[in-house]
Design a protein that fits this description.
Organism: Paenibacillus xerothermodurans
EC number: 2.1.2.9
Family: Belongs to the Fmt family.
CATH superfamily of the largest domain: Formyl transferase, N-terminal domain
Distance between the termini: 42 Å
Helix content: 25-40%
Number of strands: 14
Catalytic activity: L-methionyl-tRNA(fMet) + (6R)-10-formyltetrahydrofolate = N-formyl-L-methionyl-tRNA(fMet) + (6S)-5,6,7,8-tetrahydrofolate + H(+)
Number of helices: 10
GO cellular component, one term: cytosol
Largest sheet: 6 strands, antiparallel
Order of helices and strands: HEEEHEHEHEHEEHHHEEHEEEEH
Amino acid sequence: MGTPDFAVPSLRVLLDSGVQVVAVVTQPDRPVGRKRIMTPTPVKIEAEKHGIPVLQPERLRRPEWVAELAALQPDLIVTTAYGQILPKSVLELPKLGCINIHASLLPKYRGGAPIHHAVMNGDKVTGVTIMYMAEGLDTGDMISRVEVPIEDTDTTGSMFEKLSVAGAELLRGTLPELLAGRVTAVPQDDSQAVYSPNISREQERIHWDRPAEVIWNQVRGLNPRPGAYTLWNGEVLKVWACEKPRNGDMKAAIGEDLPEAGTVVATGEQGIEVMTGSGLLKITSLQPAGKKAMAAAELVRGGQLTVGTVLG
């Protein structure tokens, strides 16, 4: 059970492992783009390449879908980034249980956006945990885990790719032990649980009175989707990339009278520097409303973004 690109490497590992994949369950096809073209999920595309039956329930918990899964008589259900909560009636179907490949080091970052939150919080390391599924939200006993560092150059997009591969390789090593009954699952310490709900619109907005490093983490944590934004001339201005802030004396760089947070204090071919609540932040990639993403210098060359402009 899986839906986005993140889940494809794990499906490939199952196909390479010699087990019989009796079916793939994924989300229904959705309209994509301005023309609203009905588009299959990446997992469906991969499954169809190998002639695997694909099930696409709008709601997995409906009795008719539970019955269809039961008819398959699965020994094991593997999920990763599926997008629906499995009801108890499904969790109880396979004799070896249901396992989930979760993109965090549980019990930290339970929930739907673990990678976003890890990057936005400035974590230096995250990882993947394979666990037995339970009725709670990512609360099941842990079977195996692997750590993956978060570099300064990483975004949520690059971490999706790294963790997707790491999760698939973890599955490759865990599956034989699991099938042989040799795994020892470890309960999670609920007192250490941290939740990572899906990103809200408010979390996307940049508050310039925050420290520069906090905003830098926010921007890379929301890249490539949904994107951090500020307001410029009353319209949304997406901020896609910034340089890591450097420590320094702002008064020496700007003068004694520090401008309000959100003020553009310098422009150049390398980007624009904006005043924050603590330090300067250099923005290198922007996207004005109704346009494509561009280098910040393009707005500077066009005379549209000047020193003294206040972003809000």
